[in-house]
Design goal:
Length: 509
Amino acid sequence: MKPRSGPEEAQPPASDIRVFASSCSMHGLGHVFGPGGPMARRGLWTAAVLLALATLLYQVAGRVRYYGEFHHETALEERESRRLTFPAVTLCNINPLRRSRLTPNDLHWAGPALLGLEPAEHAAYLRALGRPPAPPGFMPSPTFDVARLYARAGHALEDMLLACRYRGWPCGPENFTTVFTRMGQCYTFNSGAEGAELLTTPRGGAGNGLQVMLDVQQDEYLPMWRDTEETPFEVGIRVQIHSQEEPPLIDQLGFGAAPGYQTFVSCQKQQLSFLPPPWGDCSSVSLDPDFEPEPSGPLGAPSPSPGPSPPYSLIGCRLACESRYVARKCGCRMMHMPGGAPVCSPHQYKDCAHPALDAMLRKDACTCPNPCASTRYAKELSMVRMPSRAAARYLARKHNRSEAYIVENVLMLDIFFEALNYETVEQKKAYEMSELLGDIGGQMGLFVGASLLTVLEILDYLCELQEGLGSHRTPVPHLSLGPRPPTPPCAVTKTLSSSQRTCYLVTRL
């Protein structure tokens, strides 16, 4: 029987791989699965498509692996500004305590710990200070506060500050904030403490910043009694220039200014920006030195603060870590450390706090990441001798001192911005997600001529294929013991194969 022709010819299903290959936007599939053609030609196309797919997968895997390594790059840029915020300037006299303010009670409590004195040496030390010996029947006080000792016997800014000007305008001790450091009582200009407005400058160059004249008061320096680690051999002022967000660490980061010289300090602002994990290791979590869980292993970065606290800084993290360590070992803190623990007594200073802190610093037990955003100041120093002979005579008359005293005790400090431009050092992601997607899309277009829509076409074909397989499953016939229905006459159906153009006769009973 000849097959019928015309409109009764069946169309191939949409899930046919040949239909999909002929309409897919991916290059090469039509030559691999298309009808007709020599087998050798089809084999060459198959090899070419497989090679292109393998190369594509290799390149994509390399790009994904590179993205997963989270590389970063550092960009250095110089920017201009019309006005810059002036930094905080901390000043400390190298001599921590004034000899005229020490009493027999101070020597009894702080002599062994802070000065290295034995009890039998107190009378001789008082004579060296020019002070009368302890009266007969002297009884020391029942308690002693080290912080009050430094506040009372430290150098007072009202006595040291001979002149002060900021951008030509007069300033004074009221523009400074008292702060305790490891060097004792110090003073910070433009600290921004208690919500004070920060000073700014619209111009660079000498005379457009802070100018101070200081008296180091050498006649108040303690006598050299014994060579210890805390014994200062130099004379002058220690200075640190820092941002308002970080506390001073002047004993390690400060520079010196000597009497008899005018020191010019040219500054340049630098803004640093680092990336958080996984691209970097910075942190912006503020810390609380009093919030301390039970330690487990070596000390790491202090835990996050449970309440409001100052902005995170590297120096603040180190001080908080040191405060926690000393408080855990000794039950107290040193006077320059933050926190709510009581200040150590002189005996605790000598027997526990100093040894514990030195041991921790040797072990480098504190691990503090860089802040995600910070400001630092590059400095260039230059000096000239001062005063001149004429200026020495004038200053001696003005301050009721001798010319020799002026030469040996007076210094000037001039701090200013070199220019109103500043540097930014910024870490950036070396490889963004958008770049990864662009590289993958470029590789797909280069090797197989595909795009994102091609991926959707493949997914759509797989869904149609799954639906087609489910619809062609033959259900199991239901067996019945009842009377058999009458058999209808034979029906003839035709199925047309579009590839071979052959008709098949199917008889359904």
